[in-house]
Write a structure and sequence with these properties.
364 residues, alpha/beta, seven-stranded mixed sheet, four-stranded antiparallel sheet, 14 helices, 13 strands, binds pyridoxal-5'-phosphate
């Protein structure tokens, strides 16, 4: 039997998403206990301590299925962001949402547009449903919105925009994004991925959910994995028109988000003071990392997220390995067609300091 013959078209030439290396694995391999992971844009401060308040009560109820409608989390989100409960959809991470959108709108006859150097999950979900992915060359490591409009075909149903983008950190300013949305034909869905919204909106404006009233073809997704420090729980959400939310709920698995995640996300959302502290720390530490990397002679891409991508002036897989041997996990951007770029997440002051030390010793 030839399994390859049985596999859906589109799946066969997919490569699995390469996650950041877990700290535990590296510590075991090197026989150390102080490895530093700055590879997956996680919040180095962890989650709000408020999530621990009564999480034990939730743990004791884990023989029960979670709330399949995520009623409480949805209404916490709706209240906080001034949208209607029925516009909110909860995902098992926002990657779950990205997949729902591809499954709802794309079939084998359709195409979807995304930018070069954009988030790796977009081509994965597009190809997995057998649709055609149109990758538009980036301009200065940012989305080339004019070219993205130019690339629209008769069969284009979906456009992905990551703002800020991962891994480049690039950011499309408010007016530019609005003018792009005005030009996208109404019968094309735009998924605006705002996984780093908390960072990008901290000091300067970013697009808020109110524009959904103007653009009914827009879906805006956000994540609890980054600023909210809940990457391990897998929870994210999107806000859209009620009509789109209804379709999202049709493809969603009944219990896609678990009870601990639902509880933690709700508590985390309520603790804005903690988030603000994390965002402030990120801003200060990102500035330090940026200046130090520049002073070491590396070109850094400006970033509105909690990470910096920089040209390490050598094969980034080799540079990644050298740092790994020193107990520091970063990310090589070779898989993003940026063979000389490393991405480092902004960590705690002592982690950033150690990273800079190692980079001075091993790469310079
Ligand atoms: C991290 C990330 C996500 C989502 O991650 P989840 O953990 O699935 O919420 C989505 N988009 C981008 C651009 C990201 O970097």
């Amino acid at each position: 039997m030839d399994i390859k013959e049985l596999v859906n078209r589109g799946i066969d030439d997919l490569s699995p998403y390469e996650p950041g290396k877990p700290i535990e694995d590296l510590e075991r391999e090197l026989g150390i206990n102080n490895a530093i992971k700055l590879a997956s844009n996680e919040n180095p401060m962890g989650p709000s301590p408020k999530i621990f308040d009564s999480i034990e009560a939730v743990l004791k109820e884990t023989h029960r299925y979670p709330d399949g409608n995520a009623t409480r989390l949805k209404s916490t989100i709706a209240r906080k962001f001034n949208v209607k409960d029925e516009q909110v959809t909860i995902g098992n991470g926002s990657n779950d949402i990205i997949e729902f959108v591809a499954r709802i709108f794309l079939s084998k006859e359709d195409s979807a547009i995304y930018s070069e150097h954009a988030f790796a999950v977009y081509p994965l979900v597009v190809k997995a449903v057998g649709a055609k992915g149109i990758e538009v060359p980036a301009k200065d490591f940012s989305h080339d919105l004019d070219q993205m409009l130019e690339s629209i075909q008769d069969n284009t149903k979906l456009i992905f925009i990551a703002n800020p983008n991962n891994p480049t950190g690039s950011f499309i300013e408010y007016d530019q994004l609005i003018s792009f949305l005005e030009k996208v034909p109404e019968n094309i869905i735009v998924l605006l991925d705002q996984a780093y919204f908390d960072y990008s909106s901290f000091e300067t404006k970013d697009i808020e959910f109110d524009i959904l009233n103007r653009f009914p073809n827009l879906i805006m997704s956000r994540s609890f994995s980054k600023a909210y420090g809940l990457a391990g729980f897998r929870v994210g959400f999107c806000v859209s028109s009620r009509e789109i939310a209804d379709y999202l709920n049709r493809v969603r698995q009944p219990f896609n988000a678990n009870s601990l995640a639902l509880y933690a996300a709700e508590k985390a959302l309520e603790d804005q003071d903690f988030i603000d502290k994390c965002l402030q720390l990120n801003l200060e530490q990102k500035e330090i990392l940026f200046e130090e990397l520049i002073s070491l002679g590396y070109d850094c891409l400006p970033s509105r997220g909690n990470f910096i991508s920089f040209d390490c002036k050598q094969d980034s897989r080799e540079a990644f390995n050298k740092l790994l041997m020193e107990g520091v996990i970063v990310r090589s951007l070779a898989v993003y067609k940026m063979p000389n770029y490393l991405r480092v997440s902004v960590g705690l002051p002592e982690e950033n300091f150690a990273f800079l030390e190692k980079i001075r010793q091993t790469l310079s």
